[in-house]
Each structure stands twice: as structure tokens, then as C-alpha cells.
Write a structure and sequence with these properties.
The complex is a heterotrimer. Chain A is mainly alpha-helical. Chain A is 75% helix and 0% strand. In chain A, helix 4 runs antiparallel to helix 7 and helix 10 packs antiparallel against helix 11. In chain B, helix 5 packs parallel to helix 6 and helix 6 packs across helix 7. In chain C, helix 6 links the parallel strand 7 and strand 8. In chain C, helix 3 runs parallel beside helix 5. Classes of the chains: A mainly alpha, B alpha/beta, C alpha/beta. At the A-B interface, helix 1 of A face strand 1 of B.
Chain lengths: 274, 333, 206
Amino acid sequence: MRKLNRRQRLLLGLAFSAAFLIIVCVWGILGAEAARATDFSRKNIPPCLQYPFGTDWLGRDMLARTVKGLSMSILIGITAAAVSAVIALLLGIASATMGRAVDSVVSFVIDLIMGVPHILLLILISVALGKGLKGVIIGVAVTHWPSLARLIRAEVLQLKEMPYIKIAVKLGKSRWHIAVKHMLPHLLPQFIVGLVLLFPHAILHESSITFLGFGLSTEQPAIGIVLSEAMKYLATGKWWLALFPGLFLVITVALFYILGQSLRKLLDPGSVHQ
Amino acid sequence: MDEKRVKCGAGSEDRMDSPAVNKLSGEKEPVLKIEHMSISFTQYDRGMRQVSLPVIRDLDVEVHAGEMVAVVGSSGSGKSLLAHGVMGVLPYNAAMDGRITYCGEELTRERIEKLRGREIVLVPQSIAFLNPLMKIGPQICKGDKRASAREKLRSIFKRYELDERVGNLYPFELSGGMNRRVLISTALMEEPKLVIADEPTPGLDLAVAKRAMAHFRELADMGAGVLVITHDLELALEVADRIAVFYAGATVEEAPVQDFQDEDSLRHPYTKALWRAMPQHGFHYIEGAQPYVKDLPAGCSFAPRCPQCGPECAREIAYRAVRGGKVRCVRGK
Amino acid sequence: MKLEVKDMSYRYTAKGRQILKNFNLAVDSSERVGLTAPSGYGKTTLCQLLSGYLKPDQGQVLLDGQPLSSYQGYCPVQMVWQHPEFAVNPRLPMREVIHEGDEIEEWVIQGLGIEPDWLRRFPTELSGGELQRFSLARALGKRTRFLIADEISTMLDLITQSQIWHFLLEEVEKRQIGLIAVSHNPELIDRVCTRKIDLRLQGEEK
């Protein structure tokens, strides 16, 4: 077989990660019932052919629960990260273009949020909003934008100084023309990559606060809940309850990371030439 | 034993450790000899397809000890890759072919790694290559703290009219011209036999550019071989001994600098066109532009713009010796 | 038309070096003026002041008696930069670069030797000389009255330099565009300009 070139390898990695994540999401949504179904005739079964991830103390299929939990985490993560990225885009551009006062306020807020540990802020916001889905999404969205906003702000500031932008101004081009023709092609790849790289963060943080009991309620089989429940049974030797959900959480996060990095390499002109 | 050695690099017999190959002729081996060098990049076309861009197709040049040779080509024509190719610092997606000989022996990857920074030095294009967080003195000495190094540093400072206090300053505290001299000084610590300068005068005004070139001339006068890569033919004519003209990925003519005094003593029609385009020689021009590496014509790459082009120009053109120079043209005489 | 500079002073920072002091200049649109000075005399700064990229600390730049800053939209004084690589957006195809100009005529594109195939390429696929032709074409829009050329051919090979200048001289003559050219090369200035100004001497007047 012909050796794949780098772009093809990247695209393959991208397609694989995306496919895996989509399958998990869809399966999780379709298999919601299977994740809740209890059956005491099959409780505490270690991993076997029929139940590859084993079953728990209520006889629930751990594979179904893991997939359902992951899909919830992914959906929450994507929603929160998308909101966060939009905040970052708006504030980043505003900060760079709307004068010094706006810039110092935004920069101050960025420093403030980045100065406090994420998880602490998240817990505070989530609890203040009464936990649950809303609390988690808003909490993650509000805490994750600063680093991307800072990146976009720096990029816009740098672009504003480029001769070709100054020339466009002298050629009488409108601000809209400059924003769309000159700025957007530079910002879009940064933004998309930034967005995708926010997903793993958002997912991890969602599952951690849920694990700690400040996030989603126990009726919802989020991955954090599955893991924290499993902790109680670890001491009794039921290792599979924590191992598989935990492992798959790590794999999901890693795949999102690969997705983001592949996208960056594909979209970034610096690495285009090979 | 001594007779078998071929002299290489003036006044450096004590450092001669490379057994020479050329036992027959008594004449000096060139310090650097590049034959049929080609460098190509693999690059992505739109989509997934990869294409190979032959930026340098056929480059020949020779540098002798005590001589300054200028490779002149237009900016953006990829001639900087020549320097990177010799130094073995090409980017990962580049492939090089051809033969590079240093002091009569092939310059292999292992060999250049040993010689780089010692006998063969590259003076980069921009003063941005200086480490901004390191004082000038240690930067030139490359961390060598011995008394001999300090002595050497003092003599280098003296040669370039730099104050001794400069050694304790950081690059940002010096003017552009001083930093440029510092950049050249870094090359001098090791008494190099071959100095390669990549576009040493980017955007400098005439007086400063001339001074920068004069520093390289001095290195050649001290016995090193100097290869300057530049886009500025007029400047090169003032300091170099020989000029190699680079067009569309190949050297088309190599001529002693005296030949540029008169159009008739030049060999290649492109060089003649360059000569006539000088403001003081009539400011004439020819139509067209250098062909893009992706769509080079077969045979002579200058043919589409050449007034004397004939059917024989569509064939592969050999690079041949003519009147003490070289030319890649069927008509050059 | 007339481009005038009245008592202009400029320094980069409040306490920085005085680049220009009480500088005066008047250029008619039938003229081609060459500016020379060693580096550090603020040639590029002057170009940017003349074309409105920078605002003077004191004094004014007047175009037909009106301050240059009062011209909204397209600026009749266009500057061409020394380094064409930075003057075009690396993410825009060359066709768009031409479109940015003010209704660039076909003969300008042809006269500068821009080949149709180049319009489809991106800036990284062209050499410096080719990019500079695009920068020039873009600056030669319909409403351009003065052209400021800051070392436009320094980075180019001699043939391209000659090509570009031959076209430019013909074009500014035909359309009565005033030209102010900066170059370190005295022979080039002698060739292309009708009048020479040495910034060193200007400084000594005051």
C-alpha cells in the first residue's frame, strides 16, 4: 500500500475521532432506556461476552450506562464550549477594536477568571444556579472563554497593524469589507480549532463537578455520576464498575484533543507546506 | 606526506586534516564546489495531492580560498536554500540532490555536522538571529570562557571598531549596524575557511550595505572562501571576485567581476539583459517574468524572453566553460 | 493638483527623536520628485505622513488646499510599500488584491506584466517582483492623484525594476499623477525623477 501523506493521515485521524464521538452520541440517545433498565437476575456480573463492561449492583448494563453517560457529557460539553467560544469571539474582537476602556475591562475580567481555579468557580456558579443541567452548562460556558478570547484579541490587534489592512483602509474599503475579507480568513481557523480544543476541557470539568456532587442530579446517568457511584463498590472488588467508564472518558477526551490538533494542522497555513 | 596534501585555505596548514584527493594537479582545490545541486519541496496542491516544487534545479558554483563569490538571483527565487543546503539545515520537506565538495572531499551529512559553526559558518539574513537574552560577549564566544577566547574577542572588536564595553551589552542596546557587525563577529571566533552569507543587506541603504559587504570582503582577504547570496547585483559587483547568476532555478552564468564592465564580455543573454537594465547602462528592459517553478519550459528556461532564441534552445542545455567563466547557453562565447 | 506639506514636525513618541522638524514641500501632479537621505532620516516615515498613514504632530499635509485627512473613503494619495510580501494578505488570492483597488484598468494589469495565470494564485506562490507588480496595480486606481513609492524596487532584480519603472513613468505622465519616489540608488533617482530633494539639506535649513 502507498504510504499516506501527512494530510491524508490527519484526515484519517480526524474522521476516526469524529466517527467515534458521533456513534457514542447517537447510541447514547437511542439507548437511554437500556441504561436505566434494572434486572436483579443479572446483578454484579463481571465483564463477559454478553456484558462486555459487566453489570452493577442493580443489574444495569454498564456498557449502556457508559455510552449514555459519555453521550450526555459530550452534548453538555459541546453546548457549553460553543457558548463559551462565542463569548470569547465577541469579547476578543470587542476588546481589540472598541477602544482602550473596553480593552482594559475585558482584560481585567480575563485575568480575574484565569486567576481563580476553574473547578472552584465552576462549583460556585453551578451551586448558585441550583445545580442541574442549567447550572453545569452556564458554569462551564462562563469559565472557559478567557484563554480563547485572549488569543483572538491578540490576533486582531496584530492584524490591525498589518500593512495590507492599513492599505485597505486607504483604498476606502469599509470596516465590513476589512472584517470579512481580511480578518475572518485569519480568525476562522483559530476560532474553530479553539472551539474544538475547548470540548475536552468542558467535558472533563462537567464530569468532575458531577463526580463531586455539585453537578447533575443522580437520576441522570452522566459519566460523573456513574463514576462516583462506582467508587462505593470499588472496595468490594467490583473493579469493572469504575475502570470502563473511566477509561472511556479518557479516550473520549483524548479523541477530541486529536480532533482539535488535526484540525489545527490542516487549517494552519504554517504547517500546510510539506 | 606533505606533497600529497592539497593546499586548502590560505595559511592553515596546521589544520589540514583532510587527505586530499586531487594528487595530479598542483593547483588549489576549491574550498567549496557545488555540482548539479537541486533542491525540491514537496508541497500540497489544493486538496490531498502532493506536488514536488523544484526550487533549485541545477546549481553549480565554486569558491576558492581568499575569494568572494556572489550568487545573484531575484528575491523569492529560492536561492537562500542554497545556503541551507550546504549547511545541512534544510526543512524536513525538502530533498536535495547533487554533489557538494568541501576541500576536495565530499561534504556528507556527518561531516557538515562536525564542521558547521567551526570551519564552515553561515551568517544569517537578519539580526533577529541574535539571541536577545544573551550579552554580546558570551554570544560571540559561544560560552567559551578561556582567556584565549577573551583575547580573541578583543581583537575582533578592534577590527570591527566595536567598543569593548559592547561585550557586556544586550543586542537591543545596540544599533542595527552594530548588531550586523556582531553577527559577522560570531563567524570569526573559529577562523572559518568558508563563510556563507545569506542576503546580508536586506533593505539597508547604500552606505550601510556597502560597509556590510566590505566586512565580508575582509574575511576573504584574510584567506577564507566567502559565498554571498544576494539579490543586489550592483552591490555584488563592488566587492565580489566572481558572480554566479541564478535564473529560474539554475545558474546560467559564472563570470569574473571584470567582465561586467562591458556588455560584450558577458556570456549569457540574461546577464546581458541584467547589465542593460542598470540605470547607468540605459535602463533597458525585456518583456516577461521569470517562469514559475511549476511550469518551466523544456530546455533553456530563458528561451521565451530571449532575443536570440532558436530551435536548438528547446533541448537540454549544458553548463560549459567559456573564456574563464561558465555559461548555460548554446550561443554563449 | 498640488500636494503640499506645511511646517510638519513628527516624532514617534512624546520624548523620542525628532524625525522631522518644520518640514515643507510642494509637489505638483506633473512632477516626479526623488527623495534621498541616509537611513535614519525618516524617509519611510515621511512617505507614511504624506499618504495619511501617520498623523503629523504639527503642521499639515494639504491636497489642493484641503487637509488630506478631510478626504473620506478612497485616499487620492496612495503609497506603495517596500516589502510587497507584507502588503498583500497571504490568505487572499491575487484576483482579490486587484479588486481592492479602484476600478483598475486592464491596461495597467497588462502594462505591469501581470499574467492572467497569476490572478488565480495565492501570494506565497509568487516571487517578490511579481507581488510588487500587484501592489503597484492596486495603487493605480482611477481616483489616485499622487503616488508615493517607498523603495519599491529595492528588493527586485534589475530587469523587473526597469520594467516596472518604465510602465510607471508612462502611466503617471499620461494620467498626470504626481510621483514621489524614495530610493537609495542615486542613478535610479536620476533616471526617473524631474527633481531631487535631499532630506539632509532640508534639516539644515532650520
